[in-house]
Specification:
The protein is of the alpha+beta class. It folds into 2 domains: 124 residues, Sandwich (Immunoglobulin-like); 143 residues, Immunoglobulin-like, CATH 2.60.40. It contains 4 helices and 18 strands. The strands form 3 sheets. Strands 10, 11, 12, 13, 14, 15, 16, 17 and 18 form a 9-stranded antiparallel β-sheet that branches. Strands 1-2-5-4-3-6-7 form a 7-stranded antiparallel β-sheet. A hairpin with a 4-residue loop joins strand 8 and strand 9. Helix 2 packs across helix 3. The longest helix is centred in the N-terminal third of the chain and has 25 residues. This is Conserved secreted protein.
């Protein structure tokens, strides 16, 4: 009697396994991800799974985590599994994400993101798997600010033209990230322009995120070129709010800079504001997550 019962159970498991394999192979499940609720403290990532054939999966999902630059930036908020679909909601700690972003910049704008799944089959058998994706987005390369030369002092002189701005990462100082901005200027005047000081205020989505200063004075020669280097300190504490707006805007942020040069022209001390164009910085984070999830079905 016991042997027959065991045989029936084994046969049922075999048939169940064969059906699951057939259902998954004939119609692979589809996983998609999207942004959920976003606040200054946290961000939701909603992952949904669907399969065309009903599947009875005695599986429990204990935890799902998202790792970026070796830091756990998101973990399971809630999980719902059924025979037709699955729902996993991850909660991102925005402050941890900013910390990981600084590590990403420290690593030359190269990093790795990983989503890990941890569960159990039949409440006994451990299930662990993960998908990993390399991340390379040149965020700083998009911050190329320029400004045209304008007449001042009744047309007696012209402001220097800002031809290009190259922004690079300069490491960290306390809770502030350091950006180095190398600005290439052209002086259209017949006399040199000494730049004794400048202010460099950086804004993202209307929020001031950094302030710059001139470590040493520079002279732009007459009818010539010079590179003026500014040091910008980023305020880490306001970046979670900028991230919130970035996600709500469809992963787009408007970045602008307000530059004012302090100089002496024709014996007059002059404050010269430079009008620069706004830059739009786009990311494709969710696109990358969806590409990683698609690897689950492609094998």
């Amino acid at each position: 009697m016991i042997k027959k019962l065991v045989a029936i159970v084994l046969l049922a498991l075999l048939l169940w396994g064969a059906y699951i394999a057939y259902a998954l192979l004939s119609s692979p499940p589809k996983f998609t991800a999207r942004w959920g609720n976003v606040t200054e403290a946290s961000t939701e990532v909603v992952i949904q799974g669907e399969w065309s054939k009903p599947i009875i999966l005695p599986v429990s999902m204990n935890n799902v985590t998202m790792n970026f630059m070796g830091l756990t930036v998101a973990w399971t908020d809630r999980v719902k599994l059924s025979e037709k679909n699955a729902l996993v909601v991850l909660g991102i700690d925005n402050h941890n994400l900013v910390r990981a972003l600084f590590d990403y910049l420290n690593n030359g704008q190269n990093g790795t993101a990983k989503i890990s799944f941890n569960g159990r089959l039949l409440k006994v058998i451990p299930l662990k798997f993960s998908v990993k994706r390399n991340v390379h987005m040149d965020l700083l390369g998009k911050l190329n600010f320029t400004a045209e030369s304008k007449p001042i002092l009744g047309g007696l002189a012209y402001t220097p033209a800002l031809l290009s701005t190259k922004v690079r990462w300069g490491g960290e100082k306390g809770n502030r990230g350091i950006l180095i901005a190398d600005m290439e200027f052209y002086n259209p005047n017949s006399f040199p322009i000494p730049v004794a000081n400048l202010t460099f205020d950086l804004y993202a989505n209307g929020i001031k995120i950094g302030t710059g200063y001139l470590p040493k004075s520079t002279v732009i020669p007459a009818k010539g070129y010079a590179t003026v280097t500014a040091v910008i300190e980023l305020d880490e504490n306001v970046l979670p709010k900028v991230w919130t707006l970035h996600v709500k805007n469809g992963e787009e942020s408007t970045v602008e800079v307000q530059i004012t040069l302090s100089t002496t022209i024709l014996g007059n001390t002059v404050q010269i504001p430079l009008k620069t164009e706004k830059k739009v910085v786009k990311t494709n984070i969710m696109e990358g997550i969806n590409e990683a999830l698609s690897q689950l079905t492609r094998g």
